[in-house]
Amino acid sequence: MPEQWEMKLSESYSRPETGEKGSMLELTVHVFNINFGKNKKLLDTCQKLKEYAQYVDRIRRYAKEMPPKEAIERAITECIKEGILSDFLKKNRAEALEMSWYEYNEELHLKSERQIAYEEGIEHGMEQGDIKYILRMHKNGYPLSKIAQIADKTLEEVRAVIDKEESALIP
Length: 171
Prior knowledge:
By secondary structure, this protein is mainly α. It is built from 7 helices and 2 strands. It has a two-stranded antiparallel sheet.
């Protein structure tokens, strides 16, 4: 992610175009990337924010080598020893562990959701390509059995695509 960017609330939601004119309320937020190694000037002005970035960075690095809960425990222990958020982590260790676990799981969940959406998009695009290919072959007079063989589909699937297209053309 870049060091900073703008986000508009309207970009988070889709709305059908109504064609109506009128004013809309827009919220624009300036987002700053506080991941460790980004926005050094900002992190240098706020020690606690810098320490939080270091804490999160450790969790992410350790989670590549060990189970997430162990990675969080290790990061908490090391940060306390090294004076990184140590007062807070000593006093609130259980809550920090729980919140970090929740945040880590949410991050994984969002990454997983993005991957699923990407794969579904690829699959949908391939299906659309298959449909166009089947219809083009049908239009050029290929027998349905040959279309099925070339498109690696069953005869029923080919018929369904053609029937759907033809029924869409009938007013």
